[in-house]
Every structure is written in structure tokens, then in C-alpha cells.
Amino acid sequence: MGDLFDFDQPASLYAVMGNPVAHSRSPQIHQMFAEQFGLRVEYQKIQVDLGGLPQAVANFRAAGGQGLNITLPFKLDAFRLVDELSPRALLAAAVNTISFTHDDQIIGDNTDGAGICRDIMFNLERPIAGRRVLLVGAGGAVRGVLGPILEACPELLVIANRTVDKAVELERHFSRFRSVAGCGFDDLSGQQFDIVINGTSASVADEVPAIPHTVFASGALAYDMMYGDRPTVFIEWAARHGAGQTADGIGMLVEQAAESFTIWHDRTPQTGPVIAALRNARSA
Predict the structure, then answer these.
(1) Does 75 qualify as catalytic in the annotation?
(2) What is the mean pLDDT of residues 166-179?
(3) What three-state secondary structure class fits 258?
(4) Residue 63 contacts by C-beta under 8 Å, 6 or more apart in sequence?
(5) φ, ψ of residue 164 in degrees (nearest 5)
(6) Domain spans of the chain?
(7) Pick the catalytic residue: 45, 75, 118, 132?
(8) Whole-angstrom Cα distance, residue 91 to residue 145?
(9) Which end of the chain is less crowded, N or C, counting CB atoms within 10 A of the terminal residue's CB?
(10) Tell me: the pLDDT tens digits for 226-235?
């Protein structure tokens, strides 16, 4: 339990920017984190028009904002916008966390990969090392998690995408990791994986990526980076076709938010109670 709030101190201002963004749970998450330390934090949701990220960031900064989370579809735009990149943001070529410095610099980081790895390995207790991993999709969300997953030493990580060239381009970008390969959906026929991660936005449209239903090895984990008020269609589909365990992106969302919170406040929050609170609220 955090200390009592110091109401003599103004609330520090943070936000998430995206399109759409109304569904975001980030304000509740960061408020729960702040309460653990007795911090006064105001965290907003800001919908940004396509092409409008630079102006929106400038306006937020001028209003006294101290940090931003960036969600779909602006993670690549944010990468091009910042003045300085963390090593993991540079590797991902995508930014989901922005900090403003006192000397007018904009620092970009990417906490998505750390978030998903911590959720899979610690919360779900599924090792990545030595396992066969399938990542479906090749957009900004996948770029953000590839580096940390590869650093966890899987036996093989396959990036599968409807447009094969995008998957192959990611294979080349991450080629220093010898365990990575890019392919199309049809190339997955006959292959099986211990961890299958849906990194596409298909679940938003209640669709399932056109991958073979035979990709799940015995006891495989099916993981959807998307989340909602009910199990995603990908999770339901995976459970019907042999996945031994399923999980949506709530845990990843909280864990990547904890990384952002630590960057901004130099404090590491407890994530377990926050994940439980979000799941309980959803099932109520």
C-alpha cells in the first residue's frame, strides 16, 4: 500500500495516444500503479487523427505533459518523431513510450517486448528458451516484441504474414538472431509450435488469421496480443483446435505499462494485483 497522497503537489500529466483509443485500459492501470506509491498522476486518453501525431505530441507537451504511451496505428510514426531512441526501440523500429527531458529532447522507448515476455514467462509460467514460437503478423506490434522474444533464446521463431515480403523483411532486420525465419501463411503447413502469438489486429474485426489449424503442438500456448471484454475469436478458435493454454493481451498490457511507469517514475509497480483487478472487472 502506498503512502498518503501529497495534495500539495500537482498531479503529473501522462496520456495514451492512438486511433481508436476509447477502449484503452491504460488510465486505470497507471492510476492503480500510482496508488501503490502515493503518487498523484493524471492519465488521459487522446484520440489522434491519422497524420496528426506530431502536432498532438507538441500540444500535449506544451500543456505540461511528461510522458506518453503510443498505441496503434502510430508506433512507427512515433519512431520517426523522437530525438533519441533506446536500444530496444531502435531494434524494433517502433516506439510505444515517449519521455520528455528538461533540455527539450523527446526520448523514445519500446516496452512491448519486455511486457509480453514477462507475461508469458512469469505470469503464465511458460518458458520461451528452447521452444518453437510462431508470431503471426508483421506490423508495428510484432516489431516491438521480436527483439526481446529472440533474446529469450527460442529454438526457432517464425514470423508468418499474409504479405510474405513483410515477414521476410523482418527476418532480415533481425538476422543477427539465427533462430528467426519469415514466411507466408501457406508455408506453415506441417509445422507445429509450442507458443503461437497472434500479433495481427484481426481480432478487432472478429476474424482469425488464415493460418492452418494444425500449428499447435501438444499443450501449446495460444496468445492473442489483442484483448476485449470476452475471449477473442482467435483464442476461441485456438482452443477448438488443440491449444492447451490460451491467454489474451491483458497481462502484456499491464506488464508493458509497468515498464513505462518505471521509466517515468523510477519505481517498479506490482503487476499481479492490477492484472487480477482488470480480469475481475471484465468478468463481473
Answers:
(1) yes
(2) 94
(3) helix
(4) 13
(5) -60, -40
(6) 12-110+252-283, 113-248
(7) 75
(8) 10
(9) C
(10) 988 889 999 9
